[in-house]
Amino acid sequence: MRLALIHASRLVALTAVFQAFLAFAPPPALAADDPLVLAREVEKYYAQVQDFSARFEQVVTRAHLPDRPATKTGRVYFKKPGMMRWDYLEPDKVHYVSDGKILWNYIPDSKLAYRLDVRDSELFYALKFLFGEGSLEKDFAVSAGEPDAEGYRVLVVKPRTSEQNFQELRLLVEKDSARIAGTVIVDPAGNVSRLKFLKVSTQKLPEDGFRFTPPADVQVEDLSAPAPQNP
Q1: Between 222 and 201, residue with greater pLDDT
Q2: For residue 214, cis peptide bond before it (omega within 30 degrees of 0)
Q3: pLDDT in tens, 65-83
Q4: Spatial contact of 217 and 111, defined as CB atoms under 8 Å apart
Q5: How many CA atoms lie within 13 A of 115 on its CB side?
């Protein structure tokens, strides 16, 4: 159960930053079809956007139930450096909040909150290029994927080690520009999460929205703490 919760927290947070941030950057000049050139154009997006918010729709197709996709909706917020907030509203209320140091997963109906130190997680490794401490082409294997069904060019981003909690990220790039039109993330179990964003805003966001204090009646589990040893 503990490992499953750690995986879920990191995967959703990773999806939030990768998918949301890439989707809302201003379109630069047309990038070449070379995947490394395209990856460099993607990195330029991060230098141009500081804040955004949007509605999101997420469709998760599970490997063991491919004919029963799960649809989730809510709002996402992002602010540099590394601050993010996901408010899942349907079908269940679940919140992921990070101030760039700590990631919280809060489940109101269960009165539970899980705390994770971002820097000690694979999440920080996966996102360090976003914080100016790495790059896509140096920290990940990037390649060109097969064209998407909707005609987008596909940039495939894979971890260079097998220890990360995602198998690959696909960036769907418009044919006539380097704008990211959508993203797909595949986890090690073969589950696929595809997101799209609606009513995007890049207006400045207050930092208070990225801080979380557990309510007094909520049980808190620190996922950064070492697991108890059996006697």
Answers
A1: 222
A2: no
A3: 899 999 999 998 888 887 8
A4: yes
A5: 14
Q: Extract the tokens encoding 52.
A: 């955004």
CB of 165 within 8 A of CB of 14? yes
Mean pLDDT highest for which of 78-87, 135-144, 160-169? 78-87
Q: Which two tokens stand for residue 175?
A: 């044919």
Per-residue pLDDT band at 84 (split at 50, 70, 90): confident
Phi, psi of 200 (to 5 degrees): -75, 140
The tokens for 226 are 């070492």
Query: Domains (ranges, CATH) in the chain?
Result: 2-222 (2.50.20.10)
pLDDT value at position 105? 93
Do residues 32 and 56 touch, judged by C-beta distance below 8 A?
Answer: no
Mean pLDDT check: name the lowest of 87-101, 107-121, 198-212, 217-231.
217-231
Q: What are the structure tokens assigned to 104, written together? A: 């919280």
Write out the DSSP string of the chain. -HHHHHHHHHHHHHHIIIIIHHHTSPP-SPPPSSHHHHHHHHHHHHHH--EEEEEEEEEEEETTEEEEEEEEEEEEEEETTTEEEEEEEESS-EEEEE-SSEEEEEEGGGTEEEEEEGGGSHHHHHHTTTTTS--HHHHEEEEEEPPPTTS-EEEEEEESSTTSS-SEEEEEE-TTSS-EEEEEEE-TT--EEEEEEEEEE-----GGGG-----TT-EEEETTSPPPPP-
> Does residue 215 or residue 127 have the better pLDDT?
215
